[in-house]
# Entry
Amino acid sequence: MLVLEIMAGWMQSVNQSMMLLCLIFLGMAPTANSIYPRIRLSHKELLQMNRTWIFQGQGLLLQPQTMLLDESHQRLYVGAKNALFSLNLDRVNAHYRQINWGSTEFQIEECMMKGREKPECANYIKVLQQYNQTHLLVCGTGAFNPVCAMVRVGHKGQETTFALEQESVMSGKGRCPYDPNSSCISTLRRGELYIGLYTDYWENDGALCRLNNNTYTRTERNDRQQLNEPKFVGSAVIPDNDDRDDDKVYFFFTERETDGEGVNRGVLTQIGRVCANDQGGQRMLVNRWSSFLKTRLICSVPGPNGIDTHFDNLEDVFVLTKKDEKNPEIFGLFSTTSAVFKGYAVCMYHMEDIRAAFNGPFAHRERLEHHWTAFEGKVPYPQPGSCASKMNGGSFSNSKDFPDEVLRFVRSHPVMYRPVLPHHHRPILLQTEPSRRKLTQIAVDRVQAQDGHYHVLYIGTDDSLVLKVITIYNKDTDSIEEVLLEELQIFKVPAPIKEIIISPKRQQLYVGSEVGIAQVRLHQCDLYGSACADCCLARDPYCAWDGLTCSRYYPAGVYAKSRRFRRQDVRHGNAVQLCNGLQIDDEQWQRAEERLIYSIESNTTLLECVPRSLQAKVLWFVETKGEKHEVRGDERVIMTPHGLLFLHVKSSDAGVYVCQTVEHGYVHTLLRINLHVLRAERLDLAMRKAKNEGGDGAAAQCHSIIIPPAAPSVSSQSLQLPSVPAPNSRLWYKEFLQLIGYGDAQKVEEYCERVWCSDKKRRKTKRKYAALGGVKRGKGRGEENSHRAPRHTLDT
Ligand SMILES: *[C@@H]1O[C@H](CO)[C@@H](O)[C@H](O)[C@H]1NC(C)=O
Ligand SMILES: *[C@@H]1O[C@H](CO)[C@@H](O)[C@H](O)[C@H]1NC(C)=O
Ligand SMILES: *[C@@H]1O[C@H](CO)[C@@H](O)[C@H](O)[C@H]1NC(C)=O
Ligand SMILES: *[C@@H]1O[C@H](CO)[C@@H](O)[C@H](O)[C@H]1NC(C)=O
Ligand SMILES: *[C@@H]1O[C@H](CO)[C@@H](O)[C@H](O)[C@H]1NC(C)=O
# Structure
């Protein structure tokens, strides 16, 4: 279809410069480190394409504190303020169940009497664990008076059961912090709760504990060598071998470093571990860990002057379990601790490196003011920090049997000398540009693609985004490439992402922020376009071109149907090689959409062309006498992210313009624009003719479309063309187009009827100009933003 468009000079010169400034600013080339997402999707777009569903509860801010995925019951449990929810994993906003669990009036009053603010004096659910097949263990802050209870969820298949067992309500002291803002992590194994928290009202006693119905084992109180002002970030139970007695519990936390004088210095990230079966000592270390050790988790990049930049503040951690349970991959999201320079990094760790660090040597210092050295003295047997298991010849069946010297040693040497270094000795992802955007959460999926396995990182930001990124390590150059596949705006309003849970089974993310819980599909392959090149250039390991469309990639053998050839190249995105012969450029050139655009001499004209991919480079060509020349742009003809902008169109500018994109060497012709430049005198003539012919009201509607309706700054002067007293529309157009040399009256008539006068098109046009108006004001992301229009330079 031939698309015809009339662009009258709709920009007034006064506003012109402002608008241009914006366009030019937005078109700034990204600096070396920044990467553009290939696709950017607004909240509205995600909703429209059914990629996301949002649960917001009833009216009030949900304020979720913790979430738990239960695949066996097909539910997502959410601990929030004064309430617990059980959501449907298929549709978080349908058929949910709710337990209200607030504090009593009396408790709230008591809390406020202690000097607390009203919002703090509520029951924030911070612990939510699967206790056994039928019950959850749930604990809340209870208006600064922690409480725990059991929640019945029933057996598998009884998904509608969701009830708090009143008789199970008990004190939550030592299992849940008092302060809603307090960091708290927990994990449950065989009915035992492992938890990192501040156990007291004043938040002095940070501890790593284990609770079961008869014992309470924990770190030493007031031992700054074990824990010093910890912030608890994550925990996991990881087996060492097939002997369950050798299972270890790992804790990830930050703490303050102290110097010789006991003065607090910077913050560091630590990984601590205990034996899951640790019963403490018999005579000493009673109800204290007999196996607690810790070491530093490093995430840094080498600096030019030999000084490394350290990312010492752990924001979030994700343990990616694999078939081999003993060797999960661990991903840490870190930030710098500097007040001046805020950067973020993701580092990945392997268990073998972690185990190696815990196997020694121990760190030692003679006195507080001395430096740490590797302990070179005699280490007692069994190895301090090892578990009472078959590993030690089976002679110790319980930690209470360990010799005193072992306990004494572990008590005085809880720190390992060697830190844990990340895989590749550097971050796999970096954000070092000054930016207001903070990274808050991480979840990782391991995806099998045709050319290997990829880690797809989902990173939450403080402004409601989830970034979907892959990182590709190049062995030859020893470098890491980050590919930002998608930038998804999960919530309508900017709010920090507080939690991301991934369900590889369902191919869904569950994302929590204080405004709600979102369910988001991991991929949407058709979005990249139906051509082989579109799919290949996307480099999304979930997607491959199947000969017809871009669709979900399944590794061979998963489905019999998928045996036919699939085209995918995540590592290089080499569409030229992969899709060659499928689309001949010449053919494309001819087949590309064609548009006719009219401009008035010395007016401003924008030839709009925005590629779907924000990573594509746009090139413009003009065809004259069968030859094509690249348009380089100058001070009059400017290449903007929205298209080619002519400041003062000359008649010599008329011609056929071709908009092409280049991405990974693949050239794609998007659009051919036939630009006609009208002489002012001829236009005047047309106007006068039109005026003389008069018209009716209905036609005015049709004409008004030519005016950018949402651009109030356009003066009446530049509205000359459409503001003529409405003539008979069809006649007028016919005359007008004939006058300017366009012959096919039939088409014109059809066009006016079908396109210009239809409501749909009108709204669309209106939107387009409204959007441009938004650019002019240089404001943030509008609801209507299309993923085709880059509004911001991305600073990720
Ligand atoms: C989204 O879902 C609604 C209701 O289920 C349906 O009517 C609509 O067509 C869907 N939209 C898309 C883009 O699939
Ligand atoms: C947590 O602390 C921040 C300030 O540090 C405060 O604004 C917020 O209200 C607190 N949240 C709760 C639930 O008390
Ligand atoms: C789970 O624990 C609860 C509370 O202790 C108990 O009542 C229930 O019987 C247990 N369920 C199973 C299946 O063991
Ligand atoms: C908790 O107590 C019950 C009854 O006293 C006992 O049967 C059970 O084994 C205990 N659980 C743990 C984890 O010790
Ligand atoms: C656009 O062209 C019209 C008609 O010649 C003229 O009156 C108007 O001033 C022009 N506008 C600009 C911004 O140059």
